[in-house]
């Protein structure tokens, strides 16, 4: 028995479980491109989690759709901002040209 009242076998069980979860996480990373393989793996090791997996897959699909919508909105906003910047630059250029013309006309009056 250890100080906290647990046996060495219990501690070893926790280590094995921890090792299992690390292996499972690694397996999930490796099988991410293959969702059916991952689903079969989860079903084989814990069939009670299948409904959870299906619910998570549904939620993931909805999240992906929402991400696509947000990316499109971001692109639209970026294009609008670029259009506003182009209009502002064009106005500054036109005013600068008008100022130059006015200066030339002013000099022309001064010279006469």
Automatic annotation (TrEMBL):
<protein>
    <submittedName>
        <fullName>Uncharacterized protein</fullName>
    </submittedName>
</protein>
């Amino acid at each position: 028995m250890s100080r906290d009242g647990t046996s060495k076998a219990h501690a070893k069980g926790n280590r094995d479980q921890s090792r299992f979860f690390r292996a499972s996480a690694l397996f999930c990373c490796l099988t991410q491109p293959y969702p059916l393989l991952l689903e079969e793996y989860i079903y084989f090791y814990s069939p009670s989690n299948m409904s959870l997996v299906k619910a998570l897959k549904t939620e993931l699909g909805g999240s992906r759709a929402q991400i696509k919508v947000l990316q499109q909105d971001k692109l639209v906003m970026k294009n609008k901002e670029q259009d506003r910047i182009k209009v502002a630059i064009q106005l500054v250029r036109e005013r600068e040209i008008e100022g130059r013309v006015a200066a030339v006309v002013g000099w022309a009056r001064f010279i006469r």
